[in-house]
Structure formats: C-alpha cells, structure tokens
Amino acid sequence: MLMPKPNADVLAKRDALVAGLRRIVADPEGVIDDKDDLRAFECDGLSAYRQLPMIAVLPATVREISDILKYCQAEGVNVVPRGAGTSLSGGALPLADGVLLGLGKFNKILEIDYDNRCVVAQPGVTNLAITDAVKGDGFYYAPDPSSQIACSIGGNVAENSGGVHCLKYGLTTHNLLGIEMVTMDGEIIRLGGKHLDAEGYDLLGVMTGSEGLLGVITEVTVRILRSPEHISAQLIGFPSSEQAGDCVGKIIGAGIIPAGMEMMDRYAIHAAEEFCHAGYPLDVEALLIVELDGPEVEIAHYQTQIDAIAKDCGATVSRISETEEERMTFWAGRKAAFPAVGRISPDYMCMDGTIPRSQLPKVLKRMNELSKQYGLRVANVFHAGDGNLHPLILFDANNPGELEKCEAFGADILKLCVEVGGVLTGEHGVGIEKRDLMGEMFSEEDLKQQQRLKCAFDPDGRLNPGKVFPVLHRCAELGKMHVHNGELPFPDIPRF
C-alpha cells in the first residue's frame, strides 16, 4: 500500500518543528518525538499497515488545535487527525513526514439537554459513554458500532459510522445535529446546532464522513432518543447463507423494519459461541438476529409474521428472547464476533461494502466461490438489514504472499459489491484500504469534483493526504482552464 513519499525538507527540520509545537502545547508531555513512544500511534484498526509518525501531538484545548494547525500550515507540514484509532480502513495511518494530531484529551460530555433531546460532547468521548450518561433517565444514542465501547464520537462523525441499529434509526449523519471544527488555517467554525437544519449549503453533511480530509472536529452535538417501551430479539437459523439472505429481503419486503437485523455464518457462529457462550445453535450454516422494539403487542404481531417468513425460507431454528438478560446474551456473541474470529486465525482483514438487499443471496454465493478460488476462509458478520457486509478474510501474515492474496480477495469482494449496484463502503470509510478502488465506482471527473471540494477547505492538501483519492491532484491543476488559440471556452459565460 503506497503512501506519499516523505518530504526530505520537512524531515530535515524535525527538531525545529518539535520545539515549535512545544511552545504551543502547554503540557510538557503533549508533544511526542521519541521513536518508542511513537509506536502507540503507528497504525489504527487496520493493523496490516504501519508507519511511525514524524511527531505526535496531544492538545488539550481548541485554541491549541487551532495554533497547531496554523503552525503546520505555515511550515508546510501535513497533519493526520486521530481519535480512538479504531478505524478499520487505515484512515488514521500516520505519515512519515507528518504530525499526528491526537484528540484523546477531548473526552468530556459538555452538556445533556433533555428538553432538546441532545448531548453536546467533545470528540474523544466514546460512543457508549453517551448512552451510559443518559440511560438512567430513559434515553439512549442510537448508532452503535461494534467498537462502541472504544470508538470516539468524533471518529464516528469522520467515518459516518453505523452499527446494529442503523437499519431503523440511521447512521451518524441521521443523528448528528451540529459540530465545532477547526480548518487547516486555524479558523474555528460551527456547523448546525440544536436548531433545525440551517439554510444554504449542507456543510454539516459534507463534514460527516469526510475522513479527516476537511477539518478537525472539536465538538459534537448528537440527537438522543427515548428508550423503547419493549425490546425483543429473535434467533433464526438456516441451512444455508443464501436462505438467510433471502429471508432478510422478504422481512423488509413485508413492511417490517426491525431495530436491527444481523447475520452470521458458520465460521462466525462457532467462533462467537466458543468465545462468549451465547447459546447459538451450532448445526446451522447461517444465523439471523432480528430485534424489534416498540409496544409489546406490536412486537408479538411482527414476530408471528417473521416466523412464517423464516419457515418459508427454510429456517430450522427460531428462538425468541424471554428476558432482557437473554436478549443481551444473543447480542453478546454478535458484538464479540470480531475478537472471537481472532481466536481461529492468526490474522484477519475486516472488509466493508454495501449492496442492495435483493442481491444478498447472489453475493454470499459468489463470496463462497472466491473463498475457494483464493484458498482463504471468510467469516461473514454483517448488518443484513441494510446490506452492509463485513466479510472477515482469514489469513496468516507470516506466510509469504498471504497478505497480498488477502488484499486481492478483498478487492474482488468490493468490486462485486459495486457490480451488483452497491457501494465500496457502508460505514468504515475509504481511507487507504479502498483508496485504489475508487475508480471502480467513480469516474475520473467524479473524483476530480470531490477533490475540488477538498480544495475549498484545504487548498494545500495538508490534512490527511494519501487517503481516499487514488491520485491526488493539486488544487491548481483541478482549477486550470485550457485556452486554445487565445480563446476562452464558453465566452458567453460572465467571468469575475
């Protein structure tokens, strides 16, 4: 995975940059330049790719962030923002000639406003901490990535994270009200807030999922919801993944929108069961976890319908949680699936693509064929309800060539997602993992237009370069105009 070539002139002034940053950051330990200490920042959740940052800096105030960015802009130094480092696309991979800007000290909830049903938090607050702060009063925050115990809310905004309950309650973008951010030139601005949508350009939407390319998020305002009256989960087992995929489409087609609908295949089921003893059936090839919330009578009605649909699709097991403890046990296995799979393989790479629900059976069958073709096992754990796939490709990095084989397998899965009408990512982002596949989904002109947007926020391309775009153009190149024989194109257009 190629990254931008380090700038020798920047590396040559490393000591001066360290001294300059230490003049900005009040905490004497807030600037890290020791090689061993920098190891903590060498990768994010996509640990197959590692790179020591030139310097890591840990500011404690928004003013410090602003001054750091101004300083780096003036010195021509690239900056990589980093939250909790749980990104699975390499979005927080450091640069050898860049400053890694860690936001771990921004870990406070600033305000809980029940009247307006929102929480204002610093970007380093974990996703789960928001729900924990309000659940005593009967509220919760809906987006719940599997890493919610560790991932930060600022990182959730940067990647537009989803989770188990995004089928019914939406991704981060649907639950985000406002942010405070700092641009590369140090300007502190606010987008959105507790009020309804603002007029004009949807800049809040632009920042959501921008992967650290446009600005550094320093405050987040999110919507909280009332806890549902009743919640129940249902385990449904199938003889094949294709039958389970068919059931997913038919449940949604019947007009039933579960709070969450997750799917696991045999590898994932067995790994999760051995890891946390969730009581999963081990004689099935695929397992659906379907959660419904709302009035108890409504849930009972829908579960009867789901039972009938599942039987028509060939289900051999169906079990409804009878207590809250049992419901949480059902989910314990799903939430622990990623670490559980780590017990059955030395390494694995977690992919992320999204497809139309109707294509689930076809895609699952094709992934099984690719698994045999590459000679690598794949465990499937994903948000079945909205077609967001998370295939876990199992490999051993100690075997020569297996990482490269894994990368090729993963690329074929993502190409398949686009081929059937889906997209390259659902919630993990592009980062470096999918960067070189962007041409599979977008035309050259599409990519240039996206880069023009980046130029509006970061004209010199200092924020998180090397990510998302397979070929990064300079802003001057994107804006240039071809003049032929001294004549401007479209001379009738007014020019300013």
Automatic annotation (TrEMBL):
The keyword Metal-binding does not apply. It comes from the Bacteria. GO terms for molecular function: FAD binding; oxidoreductase activity. The keyword tRNA processing does not apply. Gene3D superfamilies: 3.30.465.10, 3.30.70.2740, Vanillyl-alcohol Oxidase, Chain A, domain 4. Its cofactor is FAD. Residues 49-227 form the FAD-binding PCMH-type domain. Keywords: FAD, Flavoprotein, Oxidoreductase. This is FAD-binding protein. It comes from Sneathiella litorea. The lineage of its organism: Bacteria, Pseudomonadati, Pseudomonadota, Alphaproteobacteria, Sneathiellales.
